[in-house]
C-alpha cells in the first residue's frame, strides 16, 4: 500500500513506476521522472544523482540490471513507508502540468514483422493465389533497419511525406504527397546495456540487456513503399517519422504479463528456441482515430517474441548500444476489429472504415489524429498503463 491517494485503477500504480523525461516550464531543464498516479516524481531533485539530470534515460539505463532493480526497490520504499512522505511529497508534480520529452537518445532503430495475422493479411492482399506467408517467415523474425533520427516523442506533428508514387495503371512514377498514409500499432523495446561487436545475445540473456517497453506508431506511406521496396525493402515510405510514447515501462513491471508465444508448427533453429524462456507479453492495445476506437490488437498473439528478435538481431555479431530501439512490427489479431493498420482495417481501400461521425477512411487525411494506448495485467490485480502515443497529420 502507498501513502499516496491514487485514482482507482490508475494504471500508474506501484506495480508500474515507468520512467520518462520531462520539463515543468519553458526554461526548465529536461530530467528524469517516474509516473505515479496523476503525478510525476522528480528523480533528479529527489536523489541529487546527476544521472537523472542528463535529459535522457541513457546514462541510467547503461548502469545495468542491478542498478535498475536497486532504484525500483528504493522507489517502492519511498512511496510506501510514511516516514518518507514529507520528503517525497515536495518532489511530486502534477502530471498534467509537465511537458514530456523523448525518453531516450535513440542509437539505432530496428522494426520487425512479427504478427502472423498481420503478415497473412498483407500476403492475401498482395499475393492472391499464393501462400500468405513467404517461405522464410516462420524460420526467422523478419526486420529492417529504420532511421533513428526520425524517432520522436508522442505528440510530434505527422508531416505528410512526399516521394515517388506509381499506381499500377501509371506509365511512370509521379512525385508528391503520400495518398496512402497509414499507421502501424506496435510495441517497442529499449536496450539499456550495450554488447560487444562479434558477440551474440541469447534468448536467455534478454532481461540482462533490455531495460523496458514503450508504445510505437511506425507511420507508413504505403504508396511510396510499394514503389520503392523491391528489391531492398522499405526506405522513404517508413523513414519520415516513428512516434514513441513518453513513458518506458520497466521490464521488471511486466512479470505477470509474460505468456508463452503461440504454438509453432515449424521447428526453430537452436538460437531461437525459447521453450524455457517465454517472453510473449499479454498486452491489450487500443487504437483510436479522431477519438473513435477502431481496433483492439492483442499483443499476446505475436509469433516472434522480443527475446527472439534480439537474439536474431545480434546472432551475426552485430553490437547493441544503449538507447537502441527495436519494435515488434504491426500488432494484429484474427478478427477484423483487431487489425493494427488502416491498410488491413480497410482491406487496402476496398472496404473503407466507417467512423461514428459518418465519414469513412481508407487511409489518413490531413487533420486526422491517431492515439494508441495499451494495458498489461499487474501482480496486484490492477492494470499497468503504457500511457499513449499520439500524432496528428498535417499537410505540406
UniProtKB/TrEMBL annotation:
Q: Does the keyword Disulfide bond apply?
A: no
Pathway, per record: Amino-acid degradation; L-phenylalanine degradation; acetoacetate and fumarate from L-phenylalanine: step 6/6
Biological process annotations from GO: homogentisate catabolic process; L-phenylalanine catabolic process; L-tyrosine catabolic process
Can you give the residue ranges of the Fumarylacetoacetase N-terminal domain?
16-103
Catalytic site: 118
Report the EC number(s), separated by commas if there are several.
3.7.1.2
Q: Which domain of life is it from?
A: Bacteria
Fumarylacetoacetase-like C-terminal domain: residues covered: 110-393
Matching InterPro entries? Fumarylacetoacetase, Fumarylacetoacetase-like_C, Fumarylacetoacetase_C_sf, Fumarylacetoacetase_N, Fumarylacetoacetase_N_sf
Q: Which residues bind Ca(2+)?
A: 111, 184, 186, 218
Which residues are recorded as binding substrate?
Answer: 113, 127, 225, 229, 330
The name on file for this protein is fumarylacetoacetase
- Identify the enzyme class: hydrolase
MF term (GO), any: fumarylacetoacetase activity
Tell me the residue numbers annotated for binding Mg(2+).
218, 238, 242
Q: Which UniProt keywords apply?
A: Calcium, Hydrolase, Magnesium, Metal-binding, Phenylalanine catabolism, Tyrosine catabolism
Cofactor list? Ca(2+); Mg(2+)
> Region (Disordered): which ranges?
156-175
Q: Give the species.
A: Actinoplanes awajinensis subsp. mycoplanecinus
